[in-house]
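Worked Example 4.2. Consider the chain below.
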Amino acid sequence: MPTIYKFIVFTSFVASILYDLIRAEANSSSLPINQETTFITGPYLDGTGITNVTTQISTHAYLPCKVRQLGNKSVSWVRVRDDHILTVDRMTFIADERFQSFFVETTGIWTLQIKYVQARDAGLYECQVSTEPKVSARVHLHVVVPRTELIGDPDRYVKAGSIVTFRCVVRGALEPPTYIIWYHGSQQIYVENLRGWKVQFERDVEGDTHSSVGTLTIDHARKQHSGNYSCVPSNSASVQVTLHVINGESSASAVTSACSPSLGIYGNLVTLVFALFLLIET
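Applying the procedure from the previous section yields the following structure tokens:
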């Protein structure tokens, strides 16, 4: 067989093998029949379900909404409870200036900011994209309201010269109060004072990061210490206590009021016996 003929046969054989290999590779990498790749061409939201945001009353809340491929569409924030449109893009459509929307281009996040959050701000908010049909996602805002508790009775009766201690506790706060101020009537009690008051403020009481205590102590109670005292934390409601400083020669009514609540029925019985004794003597 001539050499040129052998070369042609060999080349055809190799070409046939290469063709079969290429065809097999193409078949293995191709999509199955009727299968198509889906591309999202319009705006869509990153993430599904309801996002929960928790904040404390009087602080600022930030509600996120991440939008992809927005294009020329608008993003609105709506308060679900009354369907009130709060913002459209960066424009605010409510008289309440605490609401504002801003956009961070690097993250694609539209954020609804609510300043100085109030308890009534709690609830659902919806982020809407102006597509047809509408694309939306919801954020549930939870507002934590700390509570202030007075330790002991709100009316205190003590003898002149006694040591008096008032305590109020702020519970359930995400962040501790920055201060707890005591007032005697309308007069603020300062740490440095000339009337014998001692003021103390403690955070994270007994390992509880959500409790703070304000303490006011009077080492030697006098008549001028009588009156109303207010415990005023920075982040929760105030509480009041009334102090009555009585002299040794007190009326039966003052003695009755002075009975400690912890004595309960026994204290009332002692008072009743004392009153009967006064009647018999007279």
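The CA atoms of residues 183 and 230 lie 5 Å apart. The helical segments are 3-29, 252-258, 265-281. Compare this with Example 4.1 before moving on.
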